[in-house]
Amino acid sequence: MSSTVLDPKLTGTYALDASHSRLGFSARHAMVTKVRGQFKEYEGSGFLDFDDPAKSTASVTVQVASVDTGNEQRDGHLSTNDFFDAPTYPTITFTSTGAAKVDDENFTLTGDLTIKDVTKSVTIDFEFTGTSVDPFNNTRVGFEGKTVVNRKDWGINFNAALETGGVLVSDKVTLEFDISAIRQDS
User: Fold this and answer.
1) Which residue from 45, 61, 174, 185 has the least number of CB within 10 angstroms?
2) Angle (CA) 54 2 124, round 5°
3) Which residue has the higher pLDDT, 184 or 35?
4) How far, in Å, CA of 81 to CA of 73, rounded?
5) Cβ neighbours for 118, distance < 8 A, ≥ 6 positions apart
6) 126-145 per-position pLDDT tens digit
7) Dihedral in degrees, nearest 10, Cα atoms 174, 34, 67, 162
8) Record's SUPFAM superfamilies (predicted)?
C-alpha cells in the first residue's frame, strides 16, 4: 500500500535502488525534437528527515560511460571530449548542500553537480510520490524531480550550425529523476 503521508517515522538512511530508478535527461536536437537519454550505472544514498526536511542530505555518483540514448553511435559521441570525456572524467557527482520543504508533497534539493571536473550549484524540484513496504519488507520512498541546466556551464560546448539556422544541440538540458530509495537502518 502506497502513501503520500509524510510520517516522521520514515526518517532514516536510504540507498538509491538503481533497478527501480531512472536518472535521465533530454535536450533539443536540430531545433525540432528532443532526444532523451539516461545513465544506467549509478549509486546514491542519503539521509531523509521527514520531521525536518532541511536536515536531509543526498549524494549520487554516475558512471559517465553508462550513458544510453538508444543510439550506439550517439552514445559513443557523448562519451568523447565533445561532450562528457568519459575516459578523463569517468564520473558525474552530486552532493546536496541544502533541502527545503515547499509543501506536503514538494521539496527542493540544492547541491553541487560536478561534470568534467567543473562544480556548479543546482536546485532540483522534487515531488514526494509516496512510500510503501515491498514484498521483501523493505521500506521504500519515491520522488520525481527535474531541473534545467545549461550544459556550457560545465564546459560541454560542442555544437554544429544548421543550414536552416540554429544549432544541432540545445544548450539547455532537462535533468529528470525518478527515484526509488530503500531504507537501510530500519
Assistant:
1) 185
2) 35
3) 184
4) 15
5) 153, 154, 155
6) 999 999 999 999 999 999 99
7) -110
8) YceI-like (SSF101874)
Mean pLDDT calculated for residue range 102-116:
95
Helix and strand totals (H; E) in the chain: 1, 11
| Share in percent of the chain as helix, strand, coil (round to 5) | 10, 55, 30
Domain ranges for the chain: 8-183
Backbone angles phi, psi at 155, to 5 degrees: 75, 20
| Start-end of H helices in the chain | 72-78
- Out of 2-6, 85-89, 132-136, 152-156, which region has the weakest mean confidence (pLDDT)? 2-6
CATH number of 8-183: 2.40.128.110
Q: Which amino acid is at 3?
A: S
What does the pLDDT read at residue 44? 97
Closest CA to 117 of 88, 95, 96: 88
Residue with cell 562528457: 84
